[in-house]
Design goal:
alpha/beta; about 550 residues; GMP Synthetase, Chain A, domain 3; Rossmann fold; eight-stranded mixed beta sheet; Luciferase, domain 3
Amino acid sequence: MSLFPPAVLSIAEIHEAIAATRPDEECLIFREKRFTWNDITLRTRQLANYLASQGLGCQTERDSLLNWESGQDHLAIYLHNGNEYLEAMLGSWKARVAPFNVNYRYVAEELEYLLTDSNASACIVHSRFAPLLAAVRPMLPNLRVVIQVPDSSGNPLLDGAIWYEDALTQSPSTKPVAGYHGDDLYILYTGGTTGMPKGVLWRNADAVVECFGGSKTAATVEEFVAEAAGALRAVPSPPFMHGAAHWIAMRTWLSGGTIIVQSQPDRLDADDIWGIIEAERANFLLIVGDAFARPLLDGLAASNHDLSSLLSILSGGAPLSAHLKVEFHSHLPNVMVVDGLGSSEAGGQLSQVATGESSTTGAFPLAPQNHILSEDLSRELEAGHDDLGWLAKSGRLALGYLHDEAKTKKTYPVVNGVRYVVPGDRARLTADNMIEVHGRDSVTINSGGEKIFAEEVEAAVKAHPDVYDCVVAGRPSERWGNEVVAVVRLKDGAQPNEQALLTEAEHHIARYKLPKAFVFVPAIVRSPAGKADYRWAKQTALDAAR
């Protein structure tokens, strides 16, 4: 049996089939712009036809390539949230061009690395980022097409670029002649908070199911259309450059629903988010862990918005602490709070529905296609095993990492004839089929001969009511080899009290895992998507010891 099931249904084909059933219904809302399903269909076709007119598309078909290779042109999406971001993704697939995400906080060296590693042929860029793109462009001989989106910066059009709307209006809205292919690539670059960013290669038909939340049972476009109820009105609040955000956006479209983009996409504005939910009667909100939850909860406490339409809050991409789930329920008792776990390499994996005062962090019911593999990756572990193993997933998986054969084979091992993905989370499967996730091996601290997972310690410290945010890192220690250091931001008005933090943390983790030191800072550095920057945390811990 092939390790790769056939890729059949492309997201472009599914989106157009759903659009045909509701052409005049709202598909995407951003500020004063309200796009129908027909509008998005035509605009993304125009973008695809423009890309094709520039010679971009698929040069080598998937079936003649290795897992870590691409035969397509790649389009960098260097944008804040807005309709253009999602149009760029869908329009790329319609042109047989592979879209990928760009972290808009990158400095020149990082941007040059990303666009070189990805071998980008094209870029869609907001004007505010155009000067940085211009600075690195001489080092990017393959970057041939630049499409610019105007913004409040007022920066002029780059030499050789074209304005986004001009590219659309000069291109036909007929269906692109290249057709829509399920095995064309969707590329998701990892955040690079623990190492250099890597491009994860997904066939877009596999991403439909495993990343974008599409039906796992639908085998035809007609079956997808039949399941598109259209009831979802979703606000994905993180930047679309983060996988969780555009996954939920695509999930909304695959359900026939409406995507609502916040009015202030360059920062997290709690009043903007709650105000849009009220004004647009949104019923679904996506956040990323504590970094989004805390300011949104602060804004919720200070507001009087009518949020009766809201049915569900999903946190994905970073852990959501138990005490914040409880706090959400105290304000919104009828809203379902869901903690989701997934990764760029595996797609969605596990989820947990918060249950009021008994909410937990890091424990998930076992879900199909999820497994625990042994330390040496030789076998699958049964429920109730004692040793920590690796959280793994089977089924429709990504192909691998762009240009990286060794990392592809390491992360996607074949065990007893089954291909798995092992993103790096250490976990245990309990006798009652609960998966306890202990944390990423890449941010594990080896202290005194014990492996300590940063995320566990962070959750324990953040349980103290004076803590606004916390990131944990290790630094060298003569006694312990490495010692655990908690970098903490306190709430406004709170005073540092290390003993109080230790006392609270002792209720949640073993004593050997407790921080050996605390560093108090005015702000925690995180990505715009809310993910901890562990390189920054480690340097902060080192600097504090000098």
